[in-house]
Every structure is written in structure tokens, then in C-alpha cells.
Specification:
18% strand; alpha+beta; 736 residues; 33% helix
Length: 736
């Protein structure tokens, strides 16, 4: 019995011990189970964000060279790391700076977290113990206020990310998403911006500099606070046991494009070297001309074979306060004489030839907004001249005559639209001034239209991005007409009477080109082409102020010439090939028709025509070419009577009309003017040398070659009669 009680007491003691051990195990196991459950199970309650795809806002040239960055929706430059192994120097620097146990923890660094909590309780630490994965979770979720609950959510989200993705995927996503300052999102964008390298090319000090920006990209901005950036970099290098002697070595890279061209990421058709050369040339020439009140220029280079934009300079001086941020490629400006080639191309399509004679004499034209009295750039009139000479010398009156008599204004406006020009303004507001520049065009529109001439009449689809897209290239002009026009534009001899030889339009290869200067020297242009390239240049001031007598030859011309000479270094340049169907015919340059046997050699020239000539011009008994009476005044002043004569009974080619004062107009006397403004010069379409004036109610008198009326209030009727031909015109007007 005694033994029984002994064993019983022992059994009871053993059972009680077991229960105690069980309780202790439960007390220990429960928190552990709760911790394990929280570590592995609680994250399952959180839906992790998707890792973002690596976006790329780089802008590269046609050869892959970095030109700049487009900004994404948040205003960042962005570039993802390329596929393949992560850059080891960058990985080492970032993990040393931000999370040394990244590859061993599961998203939450428990020892670091415990140390941070203890430090916070003691008030000795401000460390948040955020791991790289926790920072990634914070970046991928909407921003919230800093709090304990927000930290718990980050931790759970980090654990969930670690359960779903590999360490390399998480680190890649972090490096692609983190802010590295100066609007650089992603390490690859930062490496390109600060060092002009890829992350794979970074040295350890360079990688450490980027790693040092992660905590405070603004306070340690190496461009504004280089010392702070250097100190943080060196601290990271010391952690890694690396040398700290390397210089900071940062600069701004990938900034070769002005902001107006950094709108869309991708591979551009631009050639980085040519772009840099054109920008430099434009800047140098504008700085050279600044004493002539010139502040800006723009330039564009097209490849005629593909329509690709090879160089685009929106402003020559992008940092200038005078429109440095504007886009001279897309700003409409007065066209000057740059539309004249298309005026004459329309004339060729309507029966004119390069040899067709046009009058270059002082002329008034009635327009919708009054009377136009065009003057030539050089204030010189050349009398009867061929279209070849008129276009090459850029004379104004012949261009207006060609527009009026060969096709007209509505047809020319339609041609402009087909050539890609936007017709800005009401159609009835232009008048014959279209021929000499009262329309506004952009440099891009001009370059594209001139490229159509170089391409034989097909309008290119301008391409700015690669790969090129297929697109229709409509034919807008006959290729023979394009060649006729280009042949004139490349004729230095025909250009010489107005511009001389050996100037900025002279090249060691054949180049078709045209300059333009708007009224009061507000704009000047130079546009031209070879078979391979079209170059367009604008020079002027964005505020529309006048330059100091700078023409297209002296302003835009030097930039145009230097760019084309630079292109000639790339490849041998050629002229557009002559198409079939052109007839080479000898003409008399005084009449534009077949010469006579006695036509002097000086007036013989071979021209390319769409059809053979079949008739001769008119001559007097001495073999002199006969001119209409419209040339009478010009003949009196400067005509060569050895070779020209005026046919006394010939018409002027213009309908008889009194231009000043116009029929139905009202003339107001002004006491502020001399003689109350009562002296009015009379003008008509009749020859000034042979016109006679008559009015029953007003005194009419002549001074030199001009006729005047002395006005008085009332209604009056004025008569003008050509004493040679008998043609007459009448105007009824009112004076008040």
C-alpha cells in the first residue's frame, strides 16, 4: 500500500509538471505562432500593387544617340533599366546606402526594425528602418501621412511583394521608380542626365553618388549643392570600403534639343552631329549680326528622298530673352518673295515659259484694301524682262503680273493648299500681294513645299520619328514644271544683275535657292535644295521689329550656305535630274519668242520649254524689238533705243482704268496737310507718257511726268485718254 501511495504521488507530480511545461510551451508558442502567422498570413490580406512597366521618355537621334528627354505626365524624365543582369556597381552602392540586408530579409528587416523601435523609445534614433521593398511599396501606393498604421501597411505590402516577386524584380522596379532629382525618375535616366552614361557604365563613385540622392534628391542635388552630394557619396563609399578621392564629375547631359522639340519620346529622324552643327552655325551668324538689330533665327534640313527631318533649330539662341523659348519652325511670318517660285510654276502650267516677257516698270494695282504700288527690293526697274530674270532677280512687279495673267489668285490659293500651306486669312484679303509676300507661312511649310520642287512635284510626308510610316505622297506639280523652276533658281548668271556673283548663294555644286525679305526688313528667308536635301532658314525678330536693312542674302544667306556646305561634306550633292518632255529651244531674250536671223548674239539664249515655239516676236524696220506703250516712260528714262522701240499704237496689256482717284471713292480734304491736302496726283493703267487728263469741274495740270488735280468739295468726273491708242477711262468721285 505504501508503495502505491508513493507511485501515486509521483504520478501526480509528473502530471502537474507536464501541465506546467505545456502551459509554458503554449505561452511561448502562441506569440511565435502569432508572429509566424502575421509574417506569412497577414500579408495575404493585402493586395499588392503591380510592378510598373519600365517606361522610357528618352529622345534619341537616328543613330541612337541621346538628345534629351520628354517629360511624362508627372513631369519626369524616365528611363528603365535594360533587360539582363542588374549593374553590379549600382546594386552594391544602393544596398549599402539603403538596405544592406536586402538580399537576406523578407521585405521587413526585423533586427533593424527592433533597433529603430528601441531608438525611438529612447529618443536616440530617427531611423524608420525602411527596407528597399518597403520604400518600393510606398512609391507604388498613393501617398499618405506618416503614421504607425501607414508603416504597418507598408510592411505588409512589402511582405506581400516579397512573396510574389524575386529580389531582382523588386530591386529593378525600385531603381526604375525612385526619384533621383532634377526630374529624373529611374537610375538609368539619372545616369544619362548626370554622367551621359548607362547604369552599366557607371564607376563605383558615380553609382554611390546616385545612391546618395535617394534619401534627399533636392537637398543633395549635385548641380546646386555639390558639397552635400559629395559628402553623402563619400559616406557610402566608406561603408563599402572604397576610395573617396574621385571628383564629383557631374554635368547636364542629354540636353541637345530645345524644349519645344522634346514633346514626344522615341527615336527621332534627327542626326545629332548635324543638329549640333546647324545650331552652332545659326548661333554664330546671329551673334555676328546682332549690331543689325537681329535677335533670332531658325533652320530646318530635310532629306528629300525620304521626307525625314535631319536637323531642326527652332531658335538660334535658345537662352536669349528675345524669344529663345519660341518655335521659329512653326511661327507664321510674312513670306516675302519665297512664294514667287510657285507663282511662276503656276504660270508655266498656264502657258507661260521661262522666256515669257513681263513688264518690270512702276505700276499701280487695285486691291480689296486700296491701291498697291509695289517696289522692287533694290528700287530699280528693269523694263521688259523674262520670267527667268524676274524670278532669279526677285523683281516684284513681274511676279504680280504673272499671278494676274497666268492662273489668277483663286487658283494660286488652291495650289498653296495642295503644297501644304495653311491659308491664313480670308481669301479676298490677299489680292496680287500674294505674289510678293502678304501671306503668312511657316518655315516648315516652306521647306516641305520646296522639297516638292526637288522631288519633281510629289509632296513629301515630313517624318520626325523612326520607324518611318508609309504614306501617300500626292503629286502637286508637273515634274517638268518643277525642273524649269529649279533650273531658274539655280541660275547664278540670271541672278547676277540684282545680286552680283560670288555671294552667299554661290556654291561649288548646283543648288536651287530663293531668298525673301518682308516689308520693312521684319523677316528674311533663304530656302533651297539639291536632289538630296532641302534647307530652309528664317532670320528676324519674334517681336516683329525691323532689322537694320538686312536682306535674305546677307541675313539668312550665310546660315543657308554654311549648312549646305556642311551637307556637302556628308556626301556628293547633285541636282534633280532633267525629266523627259522638255524642249531645248533658242529664243530672243527681248521677246521670249523665236529669234530672227539678225538677232544679236547677246540676246540669244537656249530655254527649256514644255512645247516647241512656232512664232517670232514683233520688230520694227531696224530690227528692234517692239514694246507696248506701257514701256513708254521707261524707254524715255533708261531704255536702250538700239535694241527696243515702243509701238505707238500698241495696247498696254491692262484694261483702261483710273486708279487714283478710284471710281466711287470719297476724298477728304485735311487742313493739317499742306494746301489742305487738295493736291492729288492722278494715276491710271494707261501709259504715263501718253495719257491725257480732263475734268470739267477741277483744274488739271502737269509737273514733269506727273499729272495733278486741285481738289475742291463736290462731285466730279475725271477722264483719262491715251493719245496714241485712244483708249480711255472715267472715274466719278466725291470731295468733302
Amino acid at each position: 500500500m505504501a508503495n502505491f501511495f508513493v507511485f501515486r504521488r509521483a504520478d501526480i507530480r509528473y502530471t502537474e509538471g507536464m501541465r506546467l511545461r505545456t502551459k509554458l510551451m503554449l505561452l511561448i508558442a502562441f506569440p511565435l505562432l502569432m508572429a509566424v502567422g502575421g509574417y506569412w498570413g497577414a500579408p495575404l490580406l493585402v493586395e499588392p500593387p503591380e510592378l510598373p512597366e519600365a517606361r522610357d521618355t528618352r529622345i534619341t537621334d537616328r543613330n541612337g544617340r541621346l538628345l534629351g528627354f520628354a517629360l511624362n505626365e508627372q513631369g519626369y524624365r524616365k528611363q528603365g533599366l535594360p533587360p539582363g543582369p542588374l549593374p553590379q556597381n549600382l546594386v552594391a552602392a544602393v544596398t549599402a546606402a539603403e538596405d544592406k540586408r536586402f538580399f537576406s530579409h523578407g521585405g521587413v528587416d526585423v533586427p533593424a526594425l527592433a533597433r529603430a523601435c528601441l531608438g525611438h523609445l529612447r529618443g536616440t534614433s530617427r531611423s524608420g528602418a525602411s527596407t528597399i521593398t518597403m520604400q518600393l511599396a510606398k512609391l507604388l501606393n498613393p501617398p499618405t501621412e506618416r503614421s504607425l498604421s501607414a508603416k504597418m501597411r507598408e510592411s505588409l505590402c512589402a511582405r506581400r511583394l516579397e512573396m510574389r516577386h524575386s529580389k531582382e524584380e523588386l530591386l529593378r522596379a525600385y531603381l526604375n521608380t525612385a526619384d533621383f532629382g532634377n526630374c529624373c525618375q529611374g537610375a538609368e535616366a539619372a545616369a544619362g542626365f548626370y554622367f551621359g552614361k548607362t547604369c552599366a557604365e557607371l564607376t563605383l563613385p558615380e553609382a554611390a553618388l546616385l545612391a546618395g540622392l535617394l534619401q534627399s534628391p533636392t537637398r543633395r542635388n549635385p548641380l546646386r549643392h555639390p558639397q552635400a552630394a559629395l559628402e553623402r557619396r563619400n559616406a557610402i563609399l566608406k561603408k563599402m570600403g572604397a576610395d573617396t578621392a574621385a571628383p564629383l564629375g557631374v554635368a547636364v547631359h542629354g540636353n541637345a534639343l530645345p524644349p519645344v522639340l522634346c514633346r514626344e519620346a522615341g527615336q527621332l529622324t534627327l542626326d545629332a552631329e548635324l543638329q549640333a552643327d546647324c545650331s552652332r552655325i545659326a548661333a554664330e551668324e546671329i551673334e555676328r549680326l546682332q549690331d543689325r538689330r537681329i535677335t533670332q533665327a531658325a533652320a530646318l534640313v530635310l532629306d528629300n528622298r525620304t521626307g525625314e527631318v535631319l536637323a531642326a533649330v527652332p531658335t538660334a539662341l535658345p537662352s536669349s530673352p528675345y524669344g529663345g523659348s519660341l518655335n521659329g519652325l512653326a511661327t507664321p511670318r510674312s513670306a516675302g518673295s519665297t512664294l514667287k517660285p510657285f507663282v511662276y510654276a503656276q504660270a508655266f502650267a498656264n502657258g507661260a515659259t521661262p522666256a515669257t516677257m513681263l513688264p518690270d516698270v512702276p505700276t499701280l494695282y487695285r486691291s480689296s484694301d486700296g491701291i498697291q504700288a509695289p517696289r522692287n527690293y533694290n528700287e530699280h526697274y528693269m523694263g521688259p524682262i523674262s520670267i527667268r530674270t524676274a524670278l532669279a532677280c526677285s523683281q516684284n512687279v513681274p511676279a504680280m503680273e504673272a499671278l494676274a495673267n497666268y492662273g489668277g489668285i483663286p487658283a494660286f490659293l488652291e495650289l498653296m493648299r495642295r503644297l501644304g500651306f495653311e491659308v491664313r486669312g480670308a481669301e479676298d484679303s490677299f489680292g496680287l500681294g500674294l505674289a510678293i509676300g502678304n501671306a503668312h507661312v511657316t518655315l516648315t511649310e516652306l521647306a516641305r513645299a520646296y522639297s516638292a520642287l526637288a522631288r519633281g512635284g510629289t509632296l513629301p510626308n515630313l517624318a520626325t520619328h523612326l520607324p518611318l510610316r508609309e504614306g501617300e505622297t500626292p503629286r502637286v506639280l508637273d515634274e517638268r514644271i518643277c525642273y524649269q523652276t529649279a533650273d531658274i533658281m539655280a541660275d547664278e548668271g540670271a541672278r547676277a544683275p540684282a545680286f552680283g556673283l560670288g555671294h552667299n548663294l554661290s556654291f561649288p555644286f548646283r543648288c536651287a535657292c530663293k531668298t525673301g525679305t518682308s516689308s520693312n526688313f521684319r523677316d528674311n528667308w533663304c530656302v533651297g535644295f539639291t536632289a538630296e536635301y532641302t534647307v530652309a532658314v528664317w532670320v528676324g525678330n519674334f517681336d516683329n521689329s525691323s532689322m537694320r536693312k538686312v536682306s535674305g542674302i546677307s541675313g539668312a544667306g550665310p546660315i543657308f550656305r554654311r549648312i549646305f556646305l556642311r551637307l556637302a561634306e556628308r556626301e556628293k550633292l547633285s541636282f534633280p535630274p532633267r525629266p523627259a518632255g522638255l524642249y531645248e529651244t533658242e529664243v530672243d531674250t527681248r521677246t521670249g519668242l523665236l529669234p530672227r536671223a539678225d538677232t544679236p548674239e547677246a540676246f540669244r539664249r537656249r530655254e527649256l520649254l514644255l512645247a516647241p515655239l512656232t512664232r517670232q516676236g514683233e520688230y520694227d524696220a531696224e530690227g528692234r524689238a517692239l514694246l507696248s506703250s506701257r514701256y513708254a516712260e521707261w524707254m524715255q528714262q533708261q531704255g536702250d533705243r538700239r535694241y527696243f522701240a515702243v509701238a505707238e499704237d500698241s495696247p498696254t496689256g491692262r484694261a483702261p482704268a483710273i486708279l487714283i482717284p478710284g471710281n466711287g471713292t470719297t476724298v477728304t480734304l485735311d487742313p493739317r496737310l499742306p494746301e489742305n491736302g487738295s493736291l492729288l496726283e492722278l494715276r491710271s493703267t494707261l501709259p504715263a507718257a501718253t495719257v491725257r487728263w480732263h475734268c470739267n469741274t477741277l483744274p488739271i495740270f502737269r509737273r514733269g511726268n506727273a499729272w495733278y488735280a486741285r481738289l475742291s468739295p463736290g462731285r466730279h468726273t475725271l477722264h483719262a485718254t491715251d493719245s496714241n491708242s485712244g483708249a480711255s477711262a472715267t472715274s466719278s468721285f466725291r470731295v468733302r
